[in-house]
C-alpha cells in the first residue's frame, strides 16, 4: 500500500511540554543544573560588583560552560516558561517530517529519530539525533501514523538505513559545495 503524507495541526500547552522535558533531562538532574547555573550567575554578578576579575572570570566561565553544555535543557525550559501555548504545524512525508518553527519549516529525516516516547498520556515525544525534540498531541495522531514513524525510526537503525543516511549526507554535501561555488 502506498504511503500517504499526513498533516497535523494542534496546540501544546505548558504542561504537555514541561513533563516530557523533565523526563528527558531527569527530575533530579534538571533542578540541580538550574541551581548550579543560578549559583554561578549570582557569584558572577557579586564578583562584578566587587570588581573582582578572578571571581568574574572563574564564576562567569563556569556559568557559561553549564549554559553551553546544557543548552537544550535551558532552551526547552525557557520555551515552557515564556510561551503558554505553542501552535504546531507538522507535515509527515514518507521519509521526513516538516515542522514549522518560528515561521520557517524545518525538515527532519525520520530515520534520524532516536526516541519515540509517550511520557504523558496526551503527548508523544520525538527525539532526533541532531538534538531536536518535538511533541505531538496524542489526539492529533493515529496509531497507524505513529507506526509509520516508528518503522522509519527502526529502519534508520539497520545497516542499510545507516548506509542510506551516509549516502544522503554525501549528496547534501555535494549540493552545498555546488551552491558555494556559484
Short description:
The chain is of the alpha+beta class and 182 residues long. The protein has helices at residues 14-25, 29-49, 53-69, 71-82, 143-155, 159-181, and strands at 6-13, 85-92, 96-101, 104-109, 113-120, 123-128, 133-137.
What is the CATH class name of the largest domain?
Mainly Beta
- Number of E strands: 7
What is the succession of H and E elements?
A: EHHHHEEEEEEHH
- Please give the share of residues in helix: 40-55%
Tally of domains: 2
Please tell me how large the radius of gyration is.
20 Å
- Widest β-sheet, arrangement of strands: 1-2-3-4
CATH architecture of the largest domain: Roll
Low-confidence stretches: none
What composes the largest sheet?
A: 4 strands, antiparallel
DSSP strand (E) fraction?
Answer: 25-35%
Our measurement of the CA-to-CA distance between the termini, rounded to an integer number of angstroms, reads: 42 Å
Mind explaining what this structure looks like?
The chain has 182 residues and is of the alpha+beta class. It has 2 domains: 6-12 and 85-181, PH-domain like (Roll), CATH 2.30.29.30; 16-81, no CATH class. The chain has helices at 14-25, 29-49, 53-69, 71-82, 143-155, 159-181; strands spanning 6-13, 85-92, 96-101, 104-109, 113-120, 123-128, 133-137. Helix 1 (14-25) runs antiparallel to helix 4 and helix 2 runs antiparallel to helix 3 (53-69). It starts with 5 loop residues before the first strand and ends with a helix.
